[in-house]
Amino acid sequence: MEGIIIDDGARVPLTLSQQAIRRMPYYLKYLKNLGASSDGYISASTIATELRFYEGLVRKDLAFVSSISGKPRVGFRISDLIDDIEHFLGYDIPNRAILVGAGHLGKALMCYKGFDDYGLEIVAAFDSDKKLSGKEAGGKTIFHVSKLENLCGRLNARIGIITVPAYAAQGVCDMLVSGGVMAVWNFAPVQLNVPGGILIQNENMAESLAILSNHLMERR
Amino acid sequence: MEGIIIDDGARVPLTLSQQAIRRMPYYLKYLKNLGASSDGYISASTIATELRFYEGLVRKDLAFVSSISGKPRVGFRISDLIDDIEHFLGYDIPNRAILVGAGHLGKALMCYKGFDDYGLEIVAAFDSDKKLSGKEAGGKTIFHVSKLENLCGRLNARIGIITVPAYAAQGVCDMLVSGGVMAVWNFAPVQLNVPGGILIQNENMAESLAILSNHLMERR
DNA sequence: TAGATTGTTAATCGATTAACAATC
DNA sequence: TAGATTGTTAATCGATTAACAATC
Predict the structure, then answer these.
(1) Partner residue opposite A206 with nearest CB, options B95, B118, B204
(2) Cβ atoms B42, B25 nearer than 8 A
(3) pLDDT at residue B83 above 80?
(4) Per-residue model confidence (pLDDT) at position A136
(5) Among all strands, which nt has the closest C1' to A11 (CA)?
(6) Residues A127-184: pLDDT tens digits?
(7) Does residue B162 have a pLDDT over 70?
(8) In angstroms, what CA-CA distances link B206 with A23, A59, A118, A146, B188?
C-alpha cells in the first residue's frame, strides 16, 4: 500500500482520492452550520451519522486534512477542523478565473454570489458576440473573445470556465491553455483534449440527466 | 459474479454501473456527430480511441445497451447504436420536470434549449418571491411556491429541480416528494433526506470547485 | 474503572484494465 | 487465409466497509 511513513510509524496516504476531496465541501458546510457552538468539539461519529457516511471513512478523511489528531472521548475542535479543511481546499487563497461564453448559464455563474465561499473569483468574461462586448453581468465586464489570450495572463487567471456550445468548446479550451490557465471547468458536453498537467473538471449535466432518466425508466 | 444467464450462455450484468450510465451521453454525442455517415458502421475500437476509453470498457457498455451484437470485422451500425442508447436513457419518452427557485441559475436552466436533446422538459417553475409569480422565463410560467404540491401532480411531473439556497432545499425537497416526483435534481450544496425509492442526483458545484482548487494547490 | 472515541488494519466489493479465445 | 473486430474471462487496482486495538 502506497504511503509515506512519518516519525511515529503512522501511515498516511500521499494524496486524497477524488471522492474524498468531493466530500470535503460537505464536511465544511456541516461544520460551519454548527455555527453558534463553533468553539465546541465534535466527534467523527456524529459527523458520520449526520452526513450518512461510514465512521471509518470520516476518520480517514479527517486524519488526512487535520493538522492535529482528535482526542479520544472528546473529538475534534470544530474551529480547527474548519480552518484545516479551508486550508486544504485552498479557500484561503482565492483562485482567479475567467469565463468564456456569456449566455444564460455563463451569466448565471457570473451573478452567483456563493463562489466567494469557495475561493473562486471570476474576474472577467469573454464572448464571441460583439454585441456583448463592454457589457457587464454580476459586476464583471464581458470582452470580445479575441482578447482572451492576451488578457488571460495579464489578469493572472489560473482557472478557465467554459460555458460555450459544445462545438466551440475545444477551440476555447486551446485558447485558455495558451493563455496560461492551469485548470478548466468545462460545462460543455464534450471531452476536451489538453496537454498534461492541465486539469479538466467536467460539469456535464447530460451525465446527471442520464442517471435521472435511467432511474425513471426502471420505475416503470 | 452476479448476472443473468441468457439462452446461449452469455452472461450480462443486471444493471449498468453509475459510471457506465454517465458514459452513455458521450457515446451518444459522438455517434450523433458522425452525422452524415450515420448509415455506416463503426467499431468499438474507433469509439474507444476517440473518447479515450479502454476498448473492453466500450465493448461492455455497448453490449449492455445494444439490442444486437456487433459484427466482427464490421462493427456496429451507427443508427442502431444511437437508437439503442436513446432508448436505454429514455430520451424517447420526455421526462416532465418542475423547477423550484427562479433565481439566476434557475432561470438559466429554464432558458436552456439543450434539454430537448436529453429528454427533459421543464413544464413550470416555482419561487417564494411573490413578485415573480405570473412572470415567465424561457416560455415557462413561474408560480408561487404555495401552489407547488397541488400543481406538481396535476402537471404530471416526475422530476423536481432544486435551485434554491441551501437552507431552503430540504423543505422544497419534502414538498416535491409529497407532490409525487420520483427523482430530484439538486443544485443546492446539501445532502437531502428522502424516502426510499426516490433518487437524488446532486449537481454540486462545490464538489467540482474542491477538485479544481486542490489541483491548483498542488501545482504551487 | 468503564466507556466513548480515536486511528489502524484487514476484508469486501466493484470497477477498470489487460489478456485471450471466437468469429466472419 | 490472415487479420480486424468481436465478446469474455482473469488480473489489477482502489475505494468502501467492517473489525479491532489504543487512548484518555
Answers:
(1) B118
(2) no
(3) yes
(4) 96
(5) C8
(6) 999 999 999 999 999 999 999 999 999 999 999 999 999 999 999 999 999 999 999 9
(7) yes
(8) 10, 21, 7, 30, 9
To the question of pTM greater than 0.70 for the whole model, the response is yes
CA–CA gap between residue A173 and residue B21 (Å, rounded):
26
Q: How far is the CA of B66 from the C1' of D2 (A)?
A: 29
Residue A86's pLDDT band, with cuts at 50, 70 and 90, is very high
Alpha-helical (H) ranges within A66-189 are: 78-89, 104-111, 148-154, 166-179
Interface contact A197-B217, CB threshold 8 A: no
Query: Can you read off the three cell numbers belonging to residue B32?
Result: 450523433
pLDDT at A58: 96
Contacts of B120 in chain A (CB under 8 A): 209, 212-213
Give pLDDT, residue B122.
97
The shortest CB-CB distance from A214 to any of B51, B89, B104 is to B89
| Nucleotide at minimal C1' distance from the B42 CA | D5
Q: Which residue of B has its CA nearest to A102?
A: B108
pLDDT of residue B24: 95
Of A16, A62, A21, A14, the C-alpha closest to A201 is A21
> Rounded to 5 degrees, what are φ and ψ at A71?
-100, 125
- Beta carbons of A61 and A16 less than 8 angstroms apart: yes
The pLDDT assigned to B5 comes to 34
Per the CB < 8 Å rule, is A52 touching B119? no
Would you say the C-beta of A153 is within 7 Å of strand D? no
Where do the domains of chain B lie, and which CATH numbers do they carry? Answer: 4-89 (1.10.10.10), 95-208 (3.40.50.720)
Q: Between vectors from CA B200 to CA B194 and to CA B206, what angle results, nearest 5°?
A: 115
Under 8 Å between Cβ of A28 and A85: yes
Nucleotides of D under 7 A from a protein CB: 3-9, 14-19, 22-24
